Input
Amino acid sequence: MIAKKPAELPTAHPSQAGEAPPRDAKKKFLRDAAAHVGDTGHRAFVRKALSGYYSTRDAQQSRYRDWEQARDAAALAKWSAVNRLDELLPRFVDNFEANGGKVHWARDAAEARQIVLDLVRAAQAKAIIKSKCMTSEEIHLNAALEEEGYGVVESDLGEFIQQLRGEPPYHFVFPCMHVRRDEISALFGQHLGTPPTDSPEELTMIARRHMRGLYVGADVGITGANFLVAETGQISITENEGNARLTAGLPRVHIALSGIEKVVEYLDDLAVLLPILATAGTGQPMTCYNTLYAGPRREGEADGPEEMHLVLLDNSRTAILADPEQRDSLHCIRCGACLNVCPIFKNVGGFTYGTTYQGPIGSVITPHLRGLADWNHLSGASSLCGACTDACPVRIDIHHHLLHNRRNAARTAPNAWERLGHRLFVLVASRPWLFAAGGALFRRALPLLKFLRPPLLRDWLASRDLPAAPRQSFRRQWQGRGHREGRA
Ligand code: SF4
Output
């Protein structure tokens, strides 16, 4: 007998139902971005939701003796592991299996889904509970399990809310940051039959009461992994609600899913990685629960799962590893700091990206995971201000990677209009008389653009006021201030 999907849970969001990239991903991005940028209420709400982040993060960073040195140490731990994956992964696997766990290798999302399905079938699961796991979002696991008739309940509060809403996570650390308290109350009322409340504590308790029985009744618990410790064969999971502990510890079978890049060499590496992840991600000194899982229940132990499985996913990570220019994007510890500081994320919102990993790091890695041709437009979703790079606790050069992706796309699939534009610019910019004449013409034509609204600029003009054109060129203004050309 297989588990049936609980009646109150909507099916997975359409964006989670398959991995084939929509051919119109770029059009959809532009359409959704325009809609969200024009939605000032949504933007204000997201900004408010993030407003406390900066002060708590900065206060917490200031408690480090040297925050920059901590970033160096974290970056070194990840650099050292990612550059020696061929040595550390087998060491981790040997130690993990010596602890009694079983490792399964998955080349891509389809293989990973099949492995989990086989494990769930073998366990004769009647109920499945799952804690936060972005790797499962990456492989669209919920949709695959539902297709086979298995119901999965998300145990992380934010993910549970998103599951009830039938939406994917909005932000990979704060999945429901775009949802108001009254909306959550109404959602719980609709699906769980609870009375309305404005109290965050009561809303949390409603979810907690609902979830408790589900942990006990579940046969399979699915979790992610934050780090895989090669030295000891342990999985490290860090969380704020304690739900991952219950998800991993109460059901008969524990299945963890992880990308291969999560490995670190030493247990000591966690001494810097765990606090820096918490500080960069949420401004906490440490997340509330940091647990190391070392295999299933042993003889004489009173609790823990009977079986523990780890699915190690490649899904194009080895292709990133083979690219020395962008290899360090595998250092990402998914803290979400780059999203929190990104002006584009704050304006277009999380759903606009249409990807599992949103924001700057999502824009870097998604073209690798899902194809540059379909997802190159994400490289343009950046002002290249570098705020993401400054915020990254493991020093990934994020905004330069976005430039690399732009360059790679221009090389592999050059855009004829862009090339024509660049040639025209070279033609004009290399002839001072033409540049001056073009500038004069443009200054006169600028006010007309507002009325003529040429098709190429129509969308751009729809949400912007054109600035007044200056009466003189910059060069003239410069000379007018008594400067001679060629001298500051
Ligand atoms: S790229 Fe850096 S800042 Fe962004 S999520 Fe990863 S570790 Fe955090």
